[in-house]
């Protein structure tokens, strides 16, 4: 009976992890930018978002002014090179998605929330009320943070792989959690030295 409950727990965790993996890519991109393709000469709030995120991770050192000039162009090309993207100095879908994932905490790096006016300073900014936390069901023994960590690890290790490949990565994490030779926490398993390629790349990048 105990083994049966353990199997159900693992299956529930896998299902929740895969749901996070499935929607996290779309959600992260939707929060970061509009659908506008950014290139030299572009202006506006999306360029402010681009500059602030590039600056947040050390690629851009210029003024965050919402004007896509040469400084922004070369910063973007360097980012594309470092992250294995097509090097064209144009912020399209893939580049903006990768930048959003690389800078999850850079939303207010330029000093404020997004506004409808397209400027980063001056005037009174309209502040939006914080969204209420969404209710989530997590399997017993796993916190919301545990599930998010596993989802990120699965995405980093198996993005582009079929569903079975992604499930296999999640299963490895859960199996290690139950093994006496590995740490007994989700974060301990994921961040164990040399355990996962994506974690190594994130630390060295």
UniProtKB/TrEMBL annotation:
Region of interest (Disordered), ranges: 110-140
SUPFAM superfamilies noted in UniProt: PGBD-like
Compositional bias segments (type: Low complexity): 122-140
Keywords tagged on the record: Signal
A Pfam family of this chain: Hydrolase_2
Highest taxon above the source species: Bacteria
KW Flavoprotein (keyword) present: no
MF-aspect GO terms: hydrolase activity
Protein name, as recorded: Spore cortex-lytic enzyme
Organism: Mesobacillus boroniphilus JCM 21738
């Amino acid at each position: 009976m105990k083994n049966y409950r353990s199997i159900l727990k693992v299956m529930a965790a896998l299902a929740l992890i895969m749901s996070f993996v499935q929607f996290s890519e779309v959600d992260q991109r939707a929060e970061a930018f509009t659908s506008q393709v950014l290139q030299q000469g572009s202006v506006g709030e999306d360029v402010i978002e681009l500059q602030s995120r590039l600056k947040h991770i050390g690629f851009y050192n210029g003024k965050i002014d919402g004007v896509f000039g040469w400084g922004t162009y070369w910063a973007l090309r360097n980012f594309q090179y470092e992250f294995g993207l097509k090097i064209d100095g144009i912020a399209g879908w893939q580049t903006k998605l990768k930048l959003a994932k690389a800078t999850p905490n850079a939303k207010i790096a330029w000093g404020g929330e997004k506004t409808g006016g397209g400027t980063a300073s001056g005037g009174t900014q309209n502040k939006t009320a914080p969204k209420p936390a969404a209710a989530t069901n997590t399997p017993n023994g796993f916190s919301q943070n545990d599930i998010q960590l596993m989802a990120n690890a699965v995405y980093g290790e198996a993005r582009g792989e079929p569903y079975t490949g992604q499930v296999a990565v999640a299963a490895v994490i859960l199996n290690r959690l139950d093994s006496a030779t590995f740490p007994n926490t989700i974060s301990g398993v994921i961040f164990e030295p040399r355990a996962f390629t994506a974690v190594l790349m994130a630390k060295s990048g």
